[in-house]
Amino acid sequence: MPELGDREREGTIELLGVIAYGSISGFTRMAADSEMARDLVLKRALASMAVREFQSHEQLCDHIVALGGDPVAAMAPFEDAFEAYHARTRPRDLLEGMVKAYIGDGIARDFFVEISRYVDPAARAVIEQTGGLQADRDTIVAAVRRGIREDPRRGGPLALWGRRLMGEALTQGQVVAAQREALSELVLGLSHDRPGATLEEVGELMQRLTDRHQQRMARLGMSA
Amino acid sequence: MPELGDREREGTIELLGVIAYGSISGFTRMAADSEMARDLVLKRALASMAVREFQSHEQLCDHIVALGGDPVAAMAPFEDAFEAYHARTRPRDLLEGMVKAYIGDGIARDFFVEISRYVDPAARAVIEQTGGLQADRDTIVAAVRRGIREDPRRGGPLALWGRRLMGEALTQGQVVAAQREALSELVLGLSHDRPGATLEEVGELMQRLTDRHQQRMARLGMSA
């Protein structure tokens, strides 16, 4: 078990809790959205993305327990934010569902990789293994591009949809960050003796998240 | 690779196809139903049952490929039957969803174990590892019993619901069996040199399925 100070431990459990709840809610939504796919190859790609979320969820919960925390208690504070995100971004059809799976998974992965720089190596290792498989992402990207090629009128609204996903994710992320003190202290390096993020670095982090989002949108054939 | 005659191979691929489609459609429905659970322990149990279905699906597809078949083509003939089953048994709330997860998983497992007696050992091994985990089933059974204890008026309608699930499963099963000749030949031992089922044994098999269904209903605190 890693030796963490109380406050660092608390912040780490909060961080693992937010990712763990994000994973189980991502699992549920993505699995439900996979029902819209009639094409079995696509259905399997979406289902496989969802299953990876569940596996991440389990590993994150195991690590919360290893740190002496209770996974259900650790996840509870983040329920509202994720449920609000999903309620506000319910895909109306398969194309929207696929864009959400790809864009949402991407934003989450980027964020976790960024933030894992500020946690101890054991938690970092657990966080870094989250996220979907490249093969499934490739299947989804190809299907979205095909969908837009077949009906070019979908391109504009889907680009708006992608922007909205990013906007809602940032909104809910800020709600969470503002409420969780131990988590903010962890990122800012106030609860441990490794270097934390300066405010300038937090700004740069946001810029990188935005850049990578634009790259994903471009891969889907859309401008962000 | 197992050495099967053409007709046996065809029947085995049909059997793996029906189970593989049942697994992916079970995954999707069960994962979607897990969204109704607010209790995280329950949500995880339902999600875990769903994930097991997906893992079964992948292993079944791998074995179809190993036999020289195409999983998507092998599953296609069974899509309508499963979609009809799920459309006719859409849970209206979490209690119905949990009863469906437990009862449906149980009927499927019983059926697969019975039928795997008539296939070659390699396919049998793949089929036998399908189905949920005992710990998840126990969590679900306890939650259903608790739900009925808290609101005893739910008991009667839920027992009817359990009977309906069994009825719909048998109906769709018979539709499938009547349509798939190679599969029927496999079970009746007409396409290989191991003993097949006599008609009397098919009757006994149905009786065992019914008996075990009643045991599960009793475990939920209901009479079948």
Automatic annotation (TrEMBL), chains A, B:
Gene3D superfamilies found in the cross-reference section: 1.20.1260.10
Limits of the Ferritin-like domain: 7-189
Origin: domain of life: Bacteria
Protein name: Ferritin-like domain-containing protein
